[in-house]
Design a protein that fits this description.
By secondary structure, the chain is of the alpha+beta class. It folds into 2 domains: 205 residues, no CATH class; 192 residues, no CATH class. The protein is 55% helix and 17% strand. The protein has 14 helices and 9 strands. A 6-stranded mixed β-barrel has the order 2-3-7-4-6-5, surrounded by 4 helices. The radius of gyration is 32 Å and the shape is elongated.
Length: 413
Amino acid sequence: MGLSWLMARRFRRSKHKNRFVNFISASSTVGIALGCAALITLLSVMNGFQKALEEQLLSLVPHVEYQAVRDGLRDWRTVVETAQQHPQVIAAAPVTVVNSMLQQGRSFKGVSARAIDPELEPRVSGINDFVSADDWQRFAGDPQSVILGFGLAQELGLEVGDTITLLVPRVERGRQSLQAPRRVHLQLAGTFRLGGELDYQQAYLHLSAGQQAMGLSTEANGVRLRIRDVYQAPVVASQIASELSEYTYISDWTRTEGHLYRDIQLVRSVMYLVLVLVLAVASFNIVSTLVMVVQEKRGAIAILKTMGASDALIMRTFVLQGTMNGLLGIVIGGIAGVLLAWKLPTLLRGLEHTFAFKLLPEDIYFVSSIPTQLQWQDIVLVLVVALVTSVVATLYPAWKATQVNPARALIGE
């Protein structure tokens, strides 16, 4: 192996008669470096979006939720106690979902209001992270107050202290005629700001106000759960539902926001496919380089064979030579990919500021900048696949080198 390594270094450092060989050799190294750097960066971006989905969007979107089929839950406390016995459940809290219209003067906006208990809600959601301390204190102290999404309040021109009206459809059994909606007057205590559609669709009010708006005979019509592993939400929801004594609709985040997670996983899968294809294409340059080197070094190979070099020694020599090109590209690409993924959010913010554009508008996306998260398993995967493809690419040219006939090579045939 030591002799193979020595000859591989000699062959690689020697100046080739054909400059095109040098160009192809350099391009193989550059291609592998660019492929590794790009894929490490893209996979880090996908990891960043997944982390943002888990820590931001899913902090407001219920992991699991049970809603009464009719009217309200007879005893939401029993539902909470049953749910909290499951090992995956961190906390549970009551909620009343109020689909309504928000009226301000002559302006109307559809809004999905959630009536909550200000003391229990922070256990199951991260609403406190998106509302200022003053706004939350005002909301908690006034049962007739409401918190609106920042975009919704901005569209309606509302400020803290303004009075708004919720128009809630009135549904009465056995009557087909249209009924006048219930009107619930509330005072704006503050706003929350997550980013994306929720800022224009959602509001929070007190359980008592929700009971009044829906005309419930009980305190709440649903229970919301926060679980440890959000990707187990469908399984946990079904397991707990089988133990409940009340008929409820079962919902989890994969039904409402699951398309975002599926999109992230789809892009990640495409990235893995692109990883193999990009590195395979880059490795073809290693094949081309070694084929031309073998042709150029036919005389040297013939001399080595006449001196007693075995086919295994010749093959190891050219495998190592091609692998050196791949290793150099892997090291450069790995370092560049880690640095680029680490600094990408800062670089993109600088570009947005310089050219006055917004890559991720806050009114559309739940993140306002490209997030990244480096995961060592992705880095190792990219580098290992690059190394394997580099080694595989050397096998055919190295085998061709062992087929050189010393007699014909030395007479120039």
